[in-house]
Amino acid sequence: MTEARTAVLTGAAAERGIGQATARAYAEAGWAIAVLDLDGGAAERVAADIGAAFGVAAYGGPIDVADESSVEAAHAAIEQRVAGGALPPVGALANIAGITSPVPFLETTLDLWNKVMAVNATGTYLVTRAFLPGMIERGFGRIVNMSSVSAQRGGGVFGKVPYSAAKAAILGFTKALARELGSTGVTVNAVTPGAVDTNIRVGSTPEQEAAIARDIPLGRTATPEEVAAVFVFLSSDQAGYLQGATIDINGGSHLH
Ligand SMILES: NC(=O)c1ccc[n+]([C@@H]2O[C@H](COP(=O)([O-])OP(=O)(O)OC[C@H]3O[C@@H](n4cnc5c(N)ncnc54)[C@H](O)[C@@H]3O)[C@@H](O)[C@H]2O)c1
Question: What EC identifiers does the entry list (predicted)?
Answer without folding.
Answer: 1.1.1.100
